[in-house]
Structure formats: C-alpha cells, structure tokens
C-alpha cells in the first residue's frame, strides 16, 4: 500500500482556496485601522506595496498615496465637488477641536520628532543670524580663519 504524500506543487481546489483567501483577508489585515474619512474616497492600488492611492468620490481628485489628514482637509476645505454640508461641517469640527495632530499650535513635546511641526514663534534662519548682538572678537577671529 502506497501512502500518498502531499505534493506542494499541486493547486488547492477552488472552493477551499477561496475559503482560505477569505480567512486570510480577514485576519492578515494588520496595521492601523482606516480613518473614517476613507468612506468618501475610493481606494486605488498604485503598485507601491501596502500604501494605497485615493480618489475623491465628490470631485474625482487623485492621490498616489491616500493620507488621512490630507484627505480630511481636502474634503472639508478644498473640494470643489458636491460635498454634503453635514460632512463638510463634521470634518471642519474635527479639525477645529484638535483631533488633527498636524496643526502647529497643537504640537506637544510628546509628539514624535518626525511628526513635530515648527513653532510659529521660532526664529527663521535669517532672523537668527541677523541679530544685532555684536560677535565677540574671539569668534570673529575663528570665523575668519576658517
């Protein structure tokens, strides 16, 4: 009696394969859940791995990579399409109430460094170097040597 070993090169029956694929799609999503603003956008496969592009359902504007904050601003403020008044109002309220972490005045020291925005009160590069304070002679000598 010959025992049949499974052959890994054979195809799985179609019925079983679709059941497995369905289970994998449900369980292997991973990552952060999609933001609510995605309901106003069509997801597009842009060929760039896990990051998906987006198309606005109201004005058909296209993004190569759908970023929730950009999409929220677009829908609330910039979209020229027929965005329902309540949708626009709710998104504006979210932005105003501080659920938007990209606004400069809402940045906190606990914000990760790569997400911090510049403080509006910080000096510009020109303003920093154009201060009227005199440079002491030692620094001037070192600067001239370089």
TrEMBL record:
This is 7199_t:CDS:1. It comes from Acaulospora morrowiae.
């Amino acid at each position: 009696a010959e025992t049949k070993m499974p052959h890994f090169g054979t195809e799985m029956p179609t019925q079983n394969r679709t059941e497995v694929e369905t289970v994998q799609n449900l369980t292997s999503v991973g990552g952060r859940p999609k933001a609510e603003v995605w309901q106003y956008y069509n997801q597009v496969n842009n060929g760039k791995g896990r990051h998906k592009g987006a198309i606005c359902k109201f004005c058909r504007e296209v993004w190569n990579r759908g970023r929730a904050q950009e999409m929220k601003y677009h829908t609330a403020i910039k979209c020229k399409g027929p965005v329902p008044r309540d949708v626009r109002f709710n998104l504006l309220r979210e932005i105003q109430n501080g659920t938007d972490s990209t606004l400069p005045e809402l940045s906190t020291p606990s914000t990760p460094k790569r997400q911090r925005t510049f403080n509006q009160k910080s000096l510009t590069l020109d303003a920093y170097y154009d201060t009227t304070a005199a440079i002491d002679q030692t620094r001037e000598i070192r600067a001239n040597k370089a």
